[in-house]
Amino acid sequence: MKKVLAVFGISFSMLLALVSPASAHVSSQSKGYTLIAGQSSRLWLSLGHGCTYKDGHYPTSVFKVVVPATAGKPTPEFHYGFKTSVVASAELDKNNAPLSYTVTWTAKTLGHAIDDGTFYDFGLKLKWDATPQTIAFPTTQICYAPGKKPLYLQWIITDGSTKAATEDTEFGPAPTVTTIAAPSTK
Prior knowledge:
Layout: H1 2-18, E1 26-29, E2 40-47, E3 51-53, E4 56-58, E5 60-68, E6 75-76, E7 82-88, E8 100-107, E9 120-127, E10 134-136, E11 139-145, E12 149-157, E13 169-173, E14 176-178
Parallel strand pairs: 12-13
Antiparallel strand pairs: 1-2, 2-9, 3-4, 5-8, 5-11, 6-9, 7-8, 10-14, 11-12
C-alpha cells in the first residue's frame, strides 16, 4: 500500500510540474488527458479576468489562441453563444503544412461575453508532436469599452521577458505545456 501511495504521489507531483499555469491570467490545464508526445489529447486554456480601462472592468468578447503545428490541427470545443473559427497560418513548413492555427471564439452578443473576474475554460482537441517539448500557446483576449474601444490582454511572451502595458493593451507570458516521452515498455 505504501508503494502505491508513493507512486501516486510522485505521479501527481510530476503532473503538477508539467501542467502549471504560465501566468495568473491564462493557464493551461490538461484535466487528466495525456501529455505523452505523439498522442491525441485535450487541453483547456483558462482565463481569470477581463480587461480594465480607466477604472472600468469589461468582459471578454473574443478569445484567440495560436496553436503551433507541434500540437497538431486543433478542434475547438463548442461554447453556446460563441462563434468559432480555425484559420491556418500563411507561413508554411518545408512540407507546405501550416506552422500554426489560430482558433478564435467570438461572443455572439455582449450577453454571452465572459464577465470580468469570471474563470472560464476554452478547450481544444490536439495531437502532440512525437518529440517531447515545451509548447507555448500565445493567447489574446479582447474586451470592448464604451464606444466599442477594443482592449487587449495579450498573453504572448515566450522568452521570459516583460513588456510594459499601454493604455489599451496588457502583456504577459503565454500559457505552456510540456509533453513527455512515452514510458519505456522494457
